[in-house]
Amino acid sequence: MQKIKNQNHQVIFDISLTKQKKEDTSEVAYQKEFFRIKEQFSNHYAVYTDGSKLEERVATAAYFPERPDCSKATCLRDGASVFSAELEGITLVLTEIKKLTKYHKNFVIYSDSLSALRAIQSKSFKVKDFRRLFNLMRKFPTYDHISFD
Fold first, then answer.
1. Can you say how many angstroms the Cα of residue 74 is from the centroid of all Cα atoms in its chain?
2. Which residues cross the membrane (predicted)?
3. CATH code of the domain covering residue 6
4. Domain residues for 113?
5. What distances in angstroms separate CA 116 from CA 1, 57, 83, 113, one per listed residue?
6. Is 29 exposed, middle or buried (CB count within 10 Å of its CB: 0-12, 13-18, 19+)?
7. How far apart are CA 100 and CA 20, in angstroms?
8. 53 forms bridges with which residues in the sheet?
9. Is the pLDDT of residue 129 over 70?
10. Is 61 within 8 Å of 110 (Cβ atoms)?
11. Three-state secondary-structure class, residue 75
């Protein structure tokens, strides 16, 4: 688990699920580890995000189990990458989280995109999607705690 603290908030990246090789790990073992992570962040408001691509069509979604009305899904331009969809999903989540900070202070974002999480960790500003995402993250109040798993 890596912690990044900047001037506004603390961001934690937990990529422990990637430590095990898929071919050597049962589905039950992954589920147990996921539930362990969920327990670790049980005082956080949980949000899920995912991006997908089918042929040339690309879409992303952000799911808020406690507030389905905040959940969002959107299509990206045809031919966009799954990576862009994953980043857009996280951006959707952050946009909605910003609205919820008056009610909640700690958030955990569950994503299955290791490449997106690593890119966010590295704070790369070369891609337009990153700049928008980082600009959103900078605007969070100082007391917010956001975790990516």
1. 16
2. none
3. 3.30.420.10
4. 2-148
5. 16, 19, 7, 5
6. exposed
7. 34
8. 58
9. no
10. no
11. strand
For the chain, first and last CA: distance in Å?
9
pTM over 0.85: no
Sign of the dihedral defined by the CA atoms of residues 81, 53, 35, 25, in that order:
negative
Euclidean distance between CA atoms 58 and 136, whole angstroms: 23
Q: In the chain, pLDDT over 70 holds for what percent of residues?
A: 78
pLDDT at 4 over 60: no
Give me the amino acid identity at 99: K
Q: What is the pLDDT of residue 113?
A: 87
For the chain, how many structural domains are there in total?
1
> Residue 85 above 80 pLDDT?
yes
Reported as type and span, the H/E element at residue 101 is: none
Greater pLDDT, 59 or 122: 59
The residue type of 3 is K
Token match 């688990």: residue?
Answer: 1
Give residue for tokens 């089918």.
Answer: 54
Looking at residue 127, its pLDDT comes to 61
Q: How far apart are CA 140 and CA 147, in angstroms?
A: 13
Instruction: State the Cα–Cα distance between residues 20 and 37, nearest whole angstrom.
Output: 15
